């Protein structure tokens, strides 16, 4: 891949994830080339001029915040915090009084990207005053060196700095299916294996990939649960259980809904998000979710945190004698792989964390 200038070739980048590589390649193609990256600084060639940015602190991604941030010392002696993360969490820390037109346009773009099956990220930034930076720096140093509760302290420091952001935009990255994936999923379901997909992707993205992988079909009736409270989760689950039983009652045995559906059964796909699972997992609502899932041909959980993936595996293990098999390719899948009876890790562009956690 070349830059806009035919005389300039791209650097060969290596990153922790293919998403990161795609972003730096795209930036380089438009004249913003990452030249050097160390733990302490970044050098970027900006339209032919090299600039050095000091990396003063980094708040890693966690499943509570669903975002990550970096604090940079810029060449003009200012301090800035840059944040990237899921749209559901980023729009809560964006200052909606600023650039409202850009915010609305970004929301529309994210919806369009997700509908195409792209993985989305929102990026925001704000400049820190000298006093804000000093306050953050002292808090960050104290949290980083704490012997007890370090993760919680760092999360609190991050929350204090990741707010009132100016929106910079959003990215949409294609997550290509490997060859043979749709056929493999179809074969599993034909064999009577119930396939559940647990993903951190946005709902529209997950549904789009569900169709392209032949997990979802146009013949299926979709039951979607997006709830923001325990009471609404309870009502949604109760209504969904009744609906799923009506759709599958023609078979005489609801368990034929699992795997390959019989001729007289309307196949049901359950689509549920991580926000709803917060109120369901480890509560009395787990049993209702299991009853609903038992009536469904497909279960698609989107926007789920890594620990929620393990919680969903435990939900099945604790209620059936069925053997659970978990397959994943990244660090976010490790807890799920370890919880399942059989864990399979796929080695690829996402790294080897999943492989090292697998039963191999």
TrEMBL record:
<dbReference type="Pfam" id="PF13246">
    <property type="entry name" value="Cation_ATPase"/>
</dbReference>
<protein>
    <recommendedName>
        <fullName>Phospholipid-transporting ATPase</fullName>
        <ecNumber>7.6.2.1</ecNumber>
    </recommendedName>
</protein>
<comment type="similarity">
    <text>Belongs to the cation transport ATPase (P-type) (TC 3.A.3) family. Type IV subfamily.</text>
</comment>
<dbReference type="InterPro" id="IPR023299">
    <property type="entry name" value="ATPase_P-typ_cyto_dom_N"/>
</dbReference>
<feature type="binding site">
    <location>
        <position position="199"/>
    </location>
    <ligand>
        <name>ATP</name>
    </ligand>
</feature>
<dbReference type="InterPro" id="IPR006539">
    <property type="entry name" value="P-type_ATPase_IV"/>
</dbReference>
<dbReference type="GO" id="GO:0005886">
    <property type="term" value="C:plasma membrane"/>
</dbReference>
<keyword id="KW-0479">Metal-binding</keyword>
<dbReference type="InterPro" id="IPR036412">
    <property type="entry name" value="HAD-like_sf"/>
</dbReference>
<feature type="binding site">
    <location>
        <position position="84"/>
    </location>
    <ligand>
        <name>ATP</name>
    </ligand>
</feature>
<feature type="binding site">
    <location>
        <position position="20"/>
    </location>
    <ligand>
        <name>ATP</name>
    </ligand>
</feature>
<dbReference type="GO" id="GO:0005783">
    <property type="term" value="C:endoplasmic reticulum"/>
</dbReference>
<feature type="binding site">
    <location>
        <position position="119"/>
    </location>
    <ligand>
        <name>ATP</name>
    </ligand>
</feature>
<keyword id="KW-1278">Translocase</keyword>
<feature type="binding site">
    <location>
        <position position="329"/>
    </location>
    <ligand>
        <name>Mg(2+)</name>
    </ligand>
</feature>
<feature type="binding site">
    <location>
        <position position="200"/>
    </location>
    <ligand>
        <name>ATP</name>
    </ligand>
</feature>
<dbReference type="InterPro" id="IPR023214">
    <property type="entry name" value="HAD_sf"/>
</dbReference>
<dbReference type="Pfam" id="PF08282">
    <property type="entry name" value="Hydrolase_3"/>
</dbReference>
<feature type="binding site">
    <location>
        <position position="332"/>
    </location>
    <ligand>
        <name>ATP</name>
    </ligand>
</feature>
<feature type="binding site">
    <location>
        <position position="303"/>
    </location>
    <ligand>
        <name>ATP</name>
    </ligand>
</feature>
<feature type="binding site">
    <location>
        <position position="201"/>
    </location>
    <ligand>
        <name>ATP</name>
    </ligand>
</feature>
<dbReference type="GO" id="GO:0005524">
    <property type="term" value="F:ATP binding"/>
</dbReference>
<dbReference type="GO" id="GO:0140327">
    <property type="term" value="F:flippase activity"/>
</dbReference>
<keyword id="KW-1133">Transmembrane helix</keyword>
<dbReference type="GO" id="GO:0000287">
    <property type="term" value="F:magnesium ion binding"/>
</dbReference>
<feature type="binding site">
    <location>
        <position position="333"/>
    </location>
    <ligand>
        <name>Mg(2+)</name>
    </ligand>
</feature>
<keyword id="KW-0547">Nucleotide-binding</keyword>
<keyword id="KW-0472">Membrane</keyword>
<dbReference type="GO" id="GO:0045332">
    <property type="term" value="P:phospholipid translocation"/>
</dbReference>
<keyword id="KW-0812">Transmembrane</keyword>
<feature type="binding site">
    <location>
        <position position="333"/>
    </location>
    <ligand>
        <name>ATP</name>
    </ligand>
</feature>
<keyword id="KW-0460">Magnesium</keyword>
<feature type="binding site">
    <location>
        <position position="61"/>
    </location>
    <ligand>
        <name>ATP</name>
    </ligand>
</feature>
<keyword id="KW-0067">ATP-binding</keyword>
<feature type="binding site">
    <location>
        <position position="309"/>
    </location>
    <ligand>
        <name>ATP</name>
    </ligand>
</feature>
């Amino acid at each position: 891949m070349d830059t806009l200038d035919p005389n300039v070739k791209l650097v060969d980048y290596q990153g922790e994830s293919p998403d990161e590589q795609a972003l730096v390649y795209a930036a380089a193609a438009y004249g913003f080339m990452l030249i050097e990256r160390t733990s302490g600084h970044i050098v970027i060639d900006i339209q032919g001029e090299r600039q050095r940015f000091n990396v003063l602190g980094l708040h890693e991604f966690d499943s509570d915040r669903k975002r990550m941030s970096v604090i940079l010392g810029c060449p003009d002696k200012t301090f800035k915090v840059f944040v990237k993360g899921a749209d559901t969490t980023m729009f809560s820390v964006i200052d909606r009084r600023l650039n409202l037109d850009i915010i609305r346009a970004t929301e529309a773009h994210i919806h369009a990207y997700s509908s195409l099956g792209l993985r989305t990220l929102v990026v925001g930034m704000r400049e820190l005053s000298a006093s804000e930076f000093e306050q953050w720096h002292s808090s960050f140093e104290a949290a980083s060196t704490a012997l007890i509760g370090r993760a919680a302290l760092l999360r609190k420091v991050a929350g204090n700095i990741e707010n009132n952001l100016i929106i910079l935009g959003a990215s949409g990255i294609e997550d290509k299916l490997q060859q043979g994936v749709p056929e493999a999923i179809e074969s599993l379901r034909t064999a009577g294996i119930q396939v559940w997909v647990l993903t951190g992707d946005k709902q529209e993205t997950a549904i789009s990939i569900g169709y392209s992988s032949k997990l979802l079909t146009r013949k299926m009736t979709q039951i979607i649960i997006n709830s923001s409270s325990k009471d609404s989760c309870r009502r949604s689950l109760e209504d969904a259980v009744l609906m799923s039983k009506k759709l599958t009652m023609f078979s005489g045995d609801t368990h034929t809904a699992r795997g390959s559906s019989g001729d007289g059964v309307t196949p049901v796909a359950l689509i549920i998000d991580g926000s709803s699972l917060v109120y369901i997992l480890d509560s009395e609502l787990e049993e209702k979710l299991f009853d609903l899932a038992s009536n469904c041909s497909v279960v698609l959980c989107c926007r789920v945190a890594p620990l929620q993936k393990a919680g969903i595996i435990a939900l099945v293990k604790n209620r059936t004698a069925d053997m659970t098999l978990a397959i994943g390719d990244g660090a976010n899948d490790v807890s799920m792989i370890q919880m399942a009876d059989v864990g399979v890790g796929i080695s690829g562009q996402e790294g080897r964390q999943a492989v090292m956690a697998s039963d191999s």
